[in-house]
C-alpha cells in the first residue's frame, strides 16, 4: 500500500515536471524585423528585367517568403520606411536608431533584424553600431537580387540573419551585416561589387563569421568600441551636422572644398589618393577650411589599409584628422556623431582611434 502511494506521488511529480518543461522547450526567442526597403523588397516590372523598383514589398511579404522561419523564432515585423537605400538620409537614420533602441529595450525582445538596401547598408550599419545602446544582437540583411528575380537571395539571407541573431554567441558583437552566407561587422563591411552576391567584404579585419543552412560559425569578436560601450546617443538629436566627402584624383583643385565651406559644412572628409593624399592645391584648401573652423578628416579612396597621422602629410601642421581604418563614407558617419559632442580636434582624433 505504501509503495503504491509512493508510486502515485512519483507519477504526480513526473507530470508536474513535464508540465513545467514543455513550455520551456516550446519557448522560442522573439525577433523583431525592422524593414526599410531596398532590393530585398524590390520588384521587376517584367520577369527578366535587370531593372527593378526597390521597396515594392512590405515586411509581412518578406516574412511569408521565408520557409520555416517561424521554427527559428517568434517573428514580428515593422515597416520603418520603404525606400531604396540610395535615398537613405540623416532623418531616416535618426528615426531608425531611436526605434531600434526602443525595441531592444523591451524585455521580451531577444534580437532585431533590419532589412536594408545594400547601397548604403555599410553606412547605416556603422551609424547604428555607434548609437545602439544594447548588447542584444542586431543583424542587418539585404539582397543583391530583387524579390521577384530568378533565384532571389533575399529569403535565404533573412533565414540566415535570424539564425545568426538568435545564436547565443551573437550577443555583444555589435551590429552585423549578413549576405551570401557571410557575417560581417558593420564597422568592417564594405560593398565592393555592383551586382555579385559576394559583394560585401571586410578588407581590414576580416569576417565576423559564416552561416550554412542556418548553422552559424563565429570568428574573432570586434575589438573597437560599439553599441552598449559607445559614448554616442541619438536620444536628444533632431538633426546631424553637415559633413561632406570630397573625392581626390589627378589634378583635383580646391573648388569643391571651398564650396563645402561656403555651404556651411561643419566637416569635410577627404577621400584621398593613396594614404589620404591630394594635390597641393586641394591640401591648401583643406588647410584654409580648418582655419575657418571646419573639421577635416583624411581618408583613402582605396577602401582598405590605415590612413594614419603625419605620414605623407603633416596633420599636426595642417590641423587635419586621420581616419585610421575607416573608409570615407564611414569616416563621415563618425565625424558627424563626433561633432555632436565636441569640436576639439584632439578628442575627435581619439574617436577615430577608439571606434
Walk me through this protein's architecture.
The protein has 355 residues and is α/β, with parallel strands linked by helices. The protein folds into 2 domains: 28-229, L-asparaginase, N-terminal domain (Rossmann fold), CATH 3.40.50; 243-354, Rossmann fold. It is built from 10 helices and 14 strands. The strands form 3 sheets. An 8-stranded mixed beta sheet has the order 2-1-3-4-5-6-9-10, sandwiched between helices. Helix 4 links the parallel strand 3 and strand 4 (138-141). Helix 4 (121-131) packs parallel to helix 9 (328-339). Residues 12-24 have low confidence and may be disordered.
Decide which structural class fits the backbone.
alpha/beta
The average pLDDT score comes to: 93
Shape: globular
By CATH, the architecture of the largest domain is named 3-Layer(aba) Sandwich
**CATH fold topology of the largest domain:** Rossmann fold
Count of individual helical segments = 10
What is the CATH homologous superfamily assignment of the largest domain? L-asparaginase, N-terminal domain
Main beta sheet, described?
8 strands, mixed
Low-pLDDT segments? 12-24
Determine the N-to-C terminus distance.
72 Å
Radius of gyration: 24 Å
Number of strands: 14
Amount of helix: 25-40%
Structure summarized in a few sentences:
By secondary structure, the protein is α/β, with parallel strands linked by helices. It has ten helices and 14 strands.
Keywords:
Rossmann fold; four-stranded parallel sheet; alpha/beta; 355 residues; 32% helix
Amino acid at each position: 500500500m505504501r509503495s503504491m502511494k509512493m508510486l502515485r506521488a512519483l507519477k504526480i511529480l513526473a507530470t508536474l515536471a513535464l508540465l513545467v518543461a514543455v513550455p520551456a522547450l516550446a519557448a522560442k526567442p522573439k525577433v523583431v524585423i525592422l524593414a526599410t526597403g531596398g532590393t530585398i523588397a524590390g520588384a521587376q516590372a517584367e520577369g527578366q528585367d535587370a531593372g527593378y523598383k526597390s521597396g515594392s514589398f512590405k515586411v509581412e511579404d518578406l516574412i511569408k517568403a521565408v520557409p520555416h522561419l517561424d521554427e527559428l523564432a517568434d517573428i514580428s515585423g515593422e515597416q520603418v520606411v520603404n525606400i531604396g537605400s540610395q535615398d537613405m538620409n540623416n532623418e531616416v537614420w535618426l528615426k531608425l536608431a531611436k526605434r531600434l533602441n526602443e525595441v531592444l529595450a523591451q524585455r521580451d525582445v531577444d534580437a532585431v533584424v533590419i532589412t536594408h538596401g545594400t547601397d548604403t547598408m555599410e553606412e547605416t550599419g556603422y551609424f547604428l553600431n555607434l548609437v545602439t545602446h544594447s548588447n542584444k544582437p542586431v543583424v542587418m540583411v539585404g539582397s543583391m537580387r530583387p524579390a521577384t528575380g530568378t533565384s532571389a537571395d533575399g529569403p535565404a539571407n533573412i533565414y540566415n540573419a535570424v539564425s545568426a541573431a538568435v545564436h547565443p554567441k551573437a550577443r555583444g558583437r555589435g551590429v552585423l551585416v549578413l549576405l551570401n552566407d557571410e557575417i560581417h561587422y558593420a564597422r568592417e563591411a564594405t560593398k565592393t561589387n555592383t551586382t555579385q552576391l559576394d559583394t560585401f567584404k571586410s578588407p581590414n579585419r576580416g569576417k565576423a563569421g559564416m552561416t550554412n543552412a542556418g548553422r552559424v560559425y563565429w570568428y574573432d569578436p570586434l575589438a573597437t568600441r560599439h553599441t552598449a560601450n559607445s559614448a554616442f546617443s541619438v536620444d536628444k538629436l533632431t538633426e546631424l551636422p553637415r559633413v561632406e566627402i570630397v573625392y581626390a584624383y589627378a589634378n583635383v583643385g580646391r573648388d569643391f572644398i571651398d564650396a563645402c565651406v561656403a555651404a556651411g559644412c561643419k566637416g569635410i572628409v577627404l577621400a584621398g589618393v593613396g594614404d589620404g593624399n591630394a594635390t597641393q592645391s586641394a591640401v591648401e584648401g583643406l588647410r584654409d577650411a580648418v582655419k575657418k573652423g571646419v573639421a577635416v578628416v583624411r581618408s583613402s579612396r582605396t577602401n582598405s589599409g590605415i590612413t594614419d597621422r603625419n605620414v605623407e602629410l603633416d596633420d599636426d601642421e595642417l590641423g587635419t584628422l586621420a581616419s585610421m581604418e575607416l573608409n570615407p563614407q564611414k569616416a563621415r558617419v563618425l565625424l558627424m556623431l563626433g561633432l555632436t559632442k565636441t569640436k576639439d580636434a584632439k578628442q575627435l582624433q581619439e574617436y577615430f582611434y577608439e571606434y
